[in-house]
# Entry
Amino acid sequence: MKITIDELRAKMLSTLGEKFPLPDAERIVEVLLWADMAGVPTMGVMKLTGTEPLQDVAPLHAIEIERESPVSVLINAGANPAPLASQIATDYALEKGVSSGISIAGVHNMFSSTAAQAFYALRIANAGLIGIVQSRTPASTTGFVSIDPLFGTNPIAFAFPTTDEPLVFDMSTSAMMWYGLVLAESHGKDIPVEIAIDSLGNPTTNPTEAMNGALLPFAQGHKAAGLALIVEILAGALPGAAYGQIEGEWGASFIAIDPETLIGRDEFRKRCSDLTRKIKSSRRQTGVNGIRLPGDRSAQCYQESVRTGMVDVEESVLAELAYV
# Structure
């Protein structure tokens, strides 16, 4: 159903405000609201529903800095919600990236998904820097033809500034996001073939069996498993989070690169824009009406939501939020 952006924001703030200070709740809502506006519902308000909603998180302590240098910071999230810790990590990555030319912020000991990786990468790109974001989640995906889950869904995102809107690439290294299984199970629907296996390693289209078994890497390929491995290292081993485990700390890393350190910001923007124009103006295969770049659909959804002031959210999801 359609709901105004302001009403959805108010409902989320009311739901989170029962447990978190308003400034923290606002930063979490900013991430979730962007996802719903960008047409990525599994990364939006849905994070406040289900069996482990963000508003039920019980932090162990305040978010704190464990190590810091001119180009880096290591953050202990104190079991706070991942979107909040990720916002703070992005702040540091941006600040240090601007002052030093390149930076990395690592986070461990945070709870739940960071939500849409593109949100943080976009924040960095909108400031004129290159943003690279990756996070590891509890193991749910096989790797290299294993049966046991070894990696998380392990998403990674890149965002590059252009003379127009940033170019964004955001992907999960698994064939489906975990919340895709949650959605399918809640709606009583099967998942596509070649997405998951059951606990014995047999192919399955049953989301419950998949949750008790494992997701497959996208395209069932070694390249995808290899990329999941890289994310497991950069977002798990490097910032001191868990790795290769079903249980354990969630982790993430945020990298900011200032093009000024090499070719310069303005020239880099021009080159990225020129590249996108070349791609979109290239010859198309038969039956193809137009070439769409990564992030185009989300950008269009977001702009349409801003234009209308409305966002589309499932009525069953809204019913689980605090009454406003």
